[in-house]
TrEMBL record:
Signal sequence residues: 1-25
Superkingdom of source: Eukaryota
Protein name per UniProt: Alpha-L-fucosidase
TM stretches of this protein: none
Plastid recorded as keyword: no
Annotated source species: Ensete ventricosum (Abyssinian banana)
Pfam families recorded: Lipase_GDSL (PF00657)
Key words, A-Z: Glycoprotein, Hydrolase, Signal
Amino acid sequence: MAFPQMLPPTASILISSLLLQLAAASAPCAFPAVFNFGDSNSDTGGLSSAFGQAPPPNGETFFRKPAGRYCDGRLIIDFIANSLGLPRLNAYLDSVGTNFSHGANFATAGSTIRPQNTTLSQSGFSPFSLDVQTWQFSQFKSRSQSFLDQGLFKDQLPKKEYFSRALYTFDIGQNDLTAGYFSDMTTEEVKASIPDILDKFSIAVKSIYGEGGRFFWVHNTGPFGCLAYVLDRLLLRAPEVDRFGCGSPFNEVAQLFNTKLEEAVAQLREDLPLAVFTLVDVYSVKYELISHATKHGFELPLVACCGHGGKYNYNGHNGCGSKKMTANGTEVVIGKSCKDPSKRVVWDGVHYTEAANRWVFDRIAEGKFSVPPTPLRMACKERAV
Ligand SMILES: *[C@@H]1O[C@H](CO)[C@@H](O)[C@H](O)[C@H]1NC(C)=O
Ligand SMILES: *[C@@H]1O[C@H](CO)[C@@H](O)[C@H](O)[C@H]1NC(C)=O
Ligand SMILES: *[C@@H]1O[C@H](CO)[C@@H](O)[C@H](O)[C@H]1NC(C)=O
């Protein structure tokens, strides 16, 4: 029997609908927008809008001027937007010249999942915790839709249908853990706070699902025990380091958080049947870069590129871009950038360089570090294809 000419008509209809389904399953998602929630790892100008600009030399590599990012250039979220064919996200809090046609960014540097009981000036943690970011998102959605109903701001706001088709990205949690340490909690106490932190994370995700969000791309937390601000401030209290010089207790806490995050996301998959979650293991990628920096073309992985003095070129009182008044009344910058940021992993002792962000993005984009292993452009599909 010849194929396919001899097939009865119903069979060929079945086959062509199957082929259509296969084509749909392998077609990229074409996300029309990205809405991001998080901390400084993905802040594209939120904290700067509210509390003053991240000073130069932030932005020097790519933007050639400060651009609201705590980085010499672009962040992972910038590479995400770019690879989806979308413009870089504007900060929701930015009141001048913003364009939200293809998404908005609710992240601010210093944000935590749980609201902190301290002010920014007391502790350095942002008042825009994840619950606040979801309230802002809800305002953004309802106000933008009501303006569109009046025929206003069409070229600055996302179309109504974008909210259910958008990718919702999250990179937050690290500050909840360091906030515990900075308020003198022991490692055991910080570990004990993780279930409550993740309960609040799940509440935030459910509220976005309640607003129609369906596609979630979640970064786990990085190895903050390798970052200068933690090493400099906390190593005296928990002095164990691994063979790469990273503070082991802090990285163990990060890994415990990530294990529990995986459980929380598994539960969310059950509770929110129409949602699609991709959980991305940025911890492993960042740790690989730090622990084998030379192999990957980088150097001095624990030392800040931009800073002022000390073992890690990090000084909590004189950060990247900080200035000092000289005797004759002129200001000089003392928190200076290193010669070649493209060879460095850590920018200012807290955040990664553009070169490191790009390296991490290149490794996570195809899904090799994700559960399930879905590429970014396919993150609307139930299963990897
Ligand atoms: C802030 O205080 C409230 C009330 O005492 C408490 O329930 C909450 O856990 C505290 N938040 C943090 C992050 O410590
Ligand atoms: C906002 O960006 C979109 C897409 O890049 C563009 O089509 C639109 O004209 C922009 N709006 C304004 C007001 O510049
Ligand atoms: C002020 O002092 C700094 C060095 O401390 C020097 O570089 C600068 O030229 C001086 N400026 C003036 C106006 O004298």
